Amino acid sequence: MLQKSLLLILLFVSFTSLNAQNLQLHFDPRNTIYGDEVAPKNYLTATFEMFKPDAWGSTFMFIDFDFNGDKRNIGLVYAEIARAFKIKDFALMPHLEYNGGLGTGFSIPGSYLAGAQYPFKLRNFFMGTYLAYKLNAFAKLSHDVQWTLTWNSAFPTSKVSLCGFLDLWTENKNRATGEGGKKLILLSEPQVWYNFTPNFAMGSEIELSYNFVNAFAGSKFYAIPTIATKWSF
Predict the structure, then answer these.
(1) How far apart are CA 59 and CA 188, in angstroms?
(2) Strand (E) positions, 173-213?
(3) How far apart are CA 41 and CA 25, in angstroms?
(4) pLDDT above 70 (res 1)
(5) Residue-range definition of the domain harbouring residue 30
(6) Are 205 and 224 in contact (CB under 8 A)?
(7) Domain containing 128 — which CATH number?
(8) What total number of domains does the chain contain?
(9) pLDDT digit string (tens) for 155-194?
Protein backbone atom coordinates (compact mmCIF):
# COMPACT_ATOMS: atom_id res chain seq x y z
CA MET A 1 0.00 0.00 0.00
CA LEU A 2 2.88 2.36 0.80
CA GLN A 3 4.38 1.75 -2.64
CA LYS A 4 1.07 2.59 -4.30
CA SER A 5 0.77 5.79 -2.27
CA LEU A 6 4.30 6.82 -3.20
CA LEU A 7 3.58 6.07 -6.85
CA LEU A 8 0.53 8.32 -6.86
CA ILE A 9 2.49 11.09 -5.16
CA LEU A 10 5.26 10.78 -7.75
CA LEU A 11 2.73 10.94 -10.55
CA PHE A 12 1.09 14.04 -9.16
CA VAL A 13 4.44 15.74 -8.55
CA SER A 14 5.58 14.84 -12.06
CA PHE A 15 2.48 16.17 -13.76
CA THR A 16 2.62 19.30 -11.62
CA SER A 17 6.24 19.89 -12.55
CA LEU A 18 5.32 19.43 -16.17
CA ASN A 19 3.54 22.48 -17.49
CA ALA A 20 -0.05 22.07 -16.37
CA GLN A 21 -1.53 24.49 -18.90
CA ASN A 22 -0.41 25.07 -22.46
CA LEU A 23 -1.51 26.53 -25.77
CA GLN A 24 -0.54 24.72 -28.97
CA LEU A 25 -0.75 25.73 -32.64
CA HIS A 26 -0.58 22.93 -35.23
CA PHE A 27 -0.28 23.13 -39.00
CA ASP A 28 -2.23 20.14 -40.33
CA PRO A 29 -1.24 19.11 -43.90
CA ARG A 30 -3.85 16.37 -44.38
CA ASN A 31 -5.00 17.68 -47.77
CA THR A 32 -1.42 17.70 -49.08
CA ILE A 33 -0.92 14.11 -47.89
CA TYR A 34 -4.29 12.52 -48.76
CA GLY A 35 -6.09 15.08 -50.93
CA ASP A 36 -9.83 15.70 -50.86
CA GLU A 37 -10.38 12.13 -49.65
CA VAL A 38 -9.68 13.40 -46.13
CA ALA A 39 -10.09 17.19 -46.19
CA PRO A 40 -10.59 19.91 -48.82
CA LYS A 41 -7.75 22.03 -47.42
CA ASN A 42 -4.83 22.15 -45.03
CA TYR A 43 -5.54 24.15 -41.89
CA LEU A 44 -4.36 25.31 -38.48
CA THR A 45 -5.59 23.86 -35.19
CA ALA A 46 -5.25 25.72 -31.90
CA THR A 47 -5.38 23.60 -28.73
CA PHE A 48 -5.70 24.68 -25.13
CA GLU A 49 -4.76 21.91 -22.69
CA MET A 50 -4.89 21.72 -18.91
CA PHE A 51 -3.96 19.12 -16.30
CA LYS A 52 -4.67 19.93 -12.65
CA PRO A 53 -3.95 17.46 -9.83
CA ASP A 54 -5.30 18.11 -6.35
CA ALA A 55 -5.82 16.32 -3.03
CA TRP A 56 -8.91 14.49 -4.35
CA GLY A 57 -7.61 13.38 -7.75
CA SER A 58 -7.01 15.21 -11.01
CA THR A 59 -8.79 17.07 -13.81
CA PHE A 60 -7.76 16.99 -17.45
CA MET A 61 -9.31 18.93 -20.30
CA PHE A 62 -8.53 20.19 -23.77
CA ILE A 63 -10.34 22.12 -26.46
CA ASP A 64 -9.45 22.16 -30.18
CA PHE A 65 -10.29 24.97 -32.61
CA ASP A 66 -9.94 23.93 -36.27
CA PHE A 67 -9.50 26.90 -38.63
CA ASN A 68 -10.95 24.99 -41.58
CA GLY A 69 -14.07 27.04 -42.21
CA ASP A 70 -14.86 29.62 -44.87
CA LYS A 71 -12.08 32.22 -45.23
CA ARG A 72 -10.07 30.28 -42.61
CA ASN A 73 -12.57 30.96 -39.86
CA ILE A 74 -13.13 28.40 -37.11
CA GLY A 75 -15.05 25.51 -38.64
CA LEU A 76 -14.97 23.03 -35.77
CA VAL A 77 -14.65 23.12 -31.99
CA TYR A 78 -14.10 19.90 -30.03
CA ALA A 79 -13.58 19.46 -26.29
CA GLU A 80 -12.91 16.74 -23.74
CA ILE A 81 -12.97 16.97 -19.97
CA ALA A 82 -12.12 14.13 -17.57
CA ARG A 83 -12.00 13.79 -13.81
CA ALA A 84 -10.22 11.07 -11.81
CA PHE A 85 -10.99 10.59 -8.11
CA LYS A 86 -8.42 9.45 -5.56
CA ILE A 87 -9.78 7.10 -2.86
CA LYS A 88 -7.18 6.98 -0.07
CA ASP A 89 -4.55 4.33 -0.97
CA PHE A 90 -6.73 2.45 -3.46
CA ALA A 91 -4.76 1.83 -6.66
CA LEU A 92 -7.69 2.32 -9.04
CA MET A 93 -9.23 5.76 -9.49
CA PRO A 94 -12.87 6.25 -10.59
CA HIS A 95 -12.90 8.09 -13.94
CA LEU A 96 -15.63 10.30 -15.46
CA GLU A 97 -15.36 11.94 -18.87
CA TYR A 98 -17.35 13.90 -21.45
CA ASN A 99 -16.46 14.49 -25.12
CA GLY A 100 -18.31 16.55 -27.72
CA GLY A 101 -18.16 19.45 -30.14
CA LEU A 102 -19.69 21.66 -32.81
CA GLY A 103 -18.93 22.21 -36.45
CA THR A 104 -20.25 24.53 -39.13
CA GLY A 105 -23.85 23.40 -39.55
CA PHE A 106 -23.53 20.21 -37.48
CA SER A 107 -22.70 18.92 -34.01
CA ILE A 108 -20.38 16.12 -32.95
CA PRO A 109 -22.44 13.65 -30.88
CA GLY A 110 -21.45 13.76 -27.24
CA SER A 111 -20.08 10.73 -25.42
CA TYR A 112 -20.21 10.01 -21.70
CA LEU A 113 -17.67 7.70 -20.04
CA ALA A 114 -17.50 6.12 -16.61
CA GLY A 115 -14.82 3.66 -15.53
CA ALA A 116 -11.60 3.27 -13.58
CA GLN A 117 -8.05 4.39 -14.29
CA TYR A 118 -4.67 3.27 -13.02
CA PRO A 119 -1.53 5.45 -12.96
CA PHE A 120 1.89 3.83 -13.10
CA LYS A 121 5.52 4.56 -13.94
CA LEU A 122 7.48 2.79 -16.69
CA ARG A 123 11.16 3.76 -16.64
CA ASN A 124 11.17 7.48 -17.50
CA PHE A 125 7.52 7.60 -18.46
CA PHE A 126 4.56 8.46 -16.27
CA MET A 127 1.70 6.39 -17.64
CA GLY A 128 -2.03 6.13 -17.14
CA THR A 129 -4.62 3.71 -18.40
CA TYR A 130 -8.35 3.41 -17.98
CA LEU A 131 -11.21 1.18 -19.07
CA ALA A 132 -14.66 2.73 -19.26
CA TYR A 133 -18.24 2.19 -20.30
CA LYS A 134 -19.02 4.69 -23.07
CA LEU A 135 -22.43 6.01 -24.05
CA ASN A 136 -22.36 7.58 -27.52
CA ALA A 137 -25.31 9.93 -27.97
CA PHE A 138 -26.05 9.07 -31.61
CA ALA A 139 -29.55 9.15 -33.09
CA LYS A 140 -29.68 5.57 -31.81
CA LEU A 141 -27.81 5.43 -28.51
CA SER A 142 -24.67 3.32 -28.71
CA HIS A 143 -23.55 1.43 -25.59
CA ASP A 144 -19.83 0.84 -25.88
CA VAL A 145 -16.47 0.36 -24.16
CA GLN A 146 -13.25 2.38 -24.41
CA TRP A 147 -9.68 1.61 -23.39
CA THR A 148 -7.16 4.45 -23.19
CA LEU A 149 -3.41 4.62 -22.58
CA THR A 150 -1.58 7.90 -21.91
CA TRP A 151 2.11 8.66 -21.48
CA ASN A 152 4.32 11.60 -20.54
CA SER A 153 8.10 11.51 -20.37
CA ALA A 154 10.27 12.83 -17.56
CA PHE A 155 13.88 13.28 -18.74
CA PRO A 156 15.38 15.78 -16.27
CA THR A 157 18.55 16.42 -18.32
CA SER A 158 16.95 16.46 -21.79
CA LYS A 159 15.15 19.21 -23.68
CA VAL A 160 13.15 16.57 -25.58
CA SER A 161 9.78 15.49 -24.17
CA LEU A 162 7.35 12.83 -25.37
CA CYS A 163 3.66 12.53 -24.61
CA GLY A 164 0.43 11.29 -26.15
CA PHE A 165 -2.47 8.89 -25.95
CA LEU A 166 -3.98 5.83 -27.59
CA ASP A 167 -7.75 5.22 -27.63
CA LEU A 168 -9.58 2.06 -28.66
CA TRP A 169 -13.37 2.09 -28.57
CA THR A 170 -16.43 0.50 -30.09
CA GLU A 171 -19.53 2.14 -31.57
CA ASN A 172 -22.52 1.24 -33.73
CA LYS A 173 -21.69 0.86 -37.41
CA ASN A 174 -24.97 2.59 -38.23
CA ARG A 175 -25.35 5.65 -36.01
CA ALA A 176 -28.90 6.33 -37.14
CA THR A 177 -30.46 2.90 -36.54
CA GLY A 178 -27.93 0.91 -34.53
CA GLU A 179 -28.18 -1.93 -37.05
CA GLY A 180 -25.22 -3.85 -38.44
CA GLY A 181 -23.35 -4.46 -35.21
CA LYS A 182 -20.26 -2.76 -33.82
CA LYS A 183 -16.96 -1.57 -35.21
CA LEU A 184 -13.63 -0.93 -33.49
CA ILE A 185 -11.99 2.50 -33.78
CA LEU A 186 -8.39 3.39 -33.07
CA LEU A 187 -7.08 6.90 -32.50
CA SER A 188 -3.61 7.78 -31.26
CA GLU A 189 -1.76 11.10 -31.14
CA PRO A 190 1.89 10.75 -30.05
CA GLN A 191 3.73 14.05 -29.67
CA VAL A 192 7.42 14.95 -29.59
CA TRP A 193 8.64 18.38 -28.42
CA TYR A 194 11.95 20.18 -28.24
CA ASN A 195 11.81 22.60 -25.33
CA PHE A 196 13.88 25.68 -26.19
CA THR A 197 12.88 27.26 -22.87
CA PRO A 198 10.68 26.12 -19.96
CA ASN A 199 7.81 27.90 -21.74
CA PHE A 200 8.40 27.58 -25.50
CA ALA A 201 8.63 24.35 -27.52
CA MET A 202 8.43 23.21 -31.13
CA GLY A 203 7.60 19.74 -32.33
CA SER A 204 5.09 17.50 -34.00
CA GLU A 205 1.97 15.46 -33.35
CA ILE A 206 1.16 12.43 -35.50
CA GLU A 207 -2.52 11.58 -35.74
CA LEU A 208 -2.87 7.83 -36.28
CA SER A 209 -6.37 6.55 -36.91
CA TYR A 210 -8.36 3.59 -38.16
CA ASN A 211 -12.15 3.65 -38.68
CA PHE A 212 -12.27 7.17 -37.28
CA VAL A 213 -15.45 8.27 -39.06
CA ASN A 214 -15.64 11.66 -37.35
CA ALA A 215 -12.91 12.90 -39.65
CA PHE A 216 -12.48 10.26 -42.36
CA ALA A 217 -14.66 8.16 -44.57
CA GLY A 218 -14.24 4.41 -44.85
CA SER A 219 -12.36 1.75 -42.92
CA LYS A 220 -8.84 2.95 -43.56
CA PHE A 221 -5.66 3.73 -41.66
CA TYR A 222 -4.30 7.29 -41.78
CA ALA A 223 -1.11 8.88 -40.42
CA ILE A 224 -1.07 12.67 -40.41
CA PRO A 225 1.90 14.55 -38.89
CA THR A 226 1.66 18.19 -37.89
CA ILE A 227 4.19 20.97 -37.42
CA ALA A 228 3.54 22.61 -34.08
CA THR A 229 4.55 25.17 -31.51
CA LYS A 230 3.61 25.17 -27.81
CA TRP A 231 3.59 27.83 -25.12
CA SER A 232 3.32 26.57 -21.55
CA PHE A 233 2.01 28.77 -18.79
Answers:
(1) 20
(2) 182-188, 191-195, 200-210
(3) 17
(4) no
(5) 2-232
(6) no
(7) 2.40.160.40
(8) 1
(9) 888 999 999 999 999 999 999 999 999 999 999 999 999 9
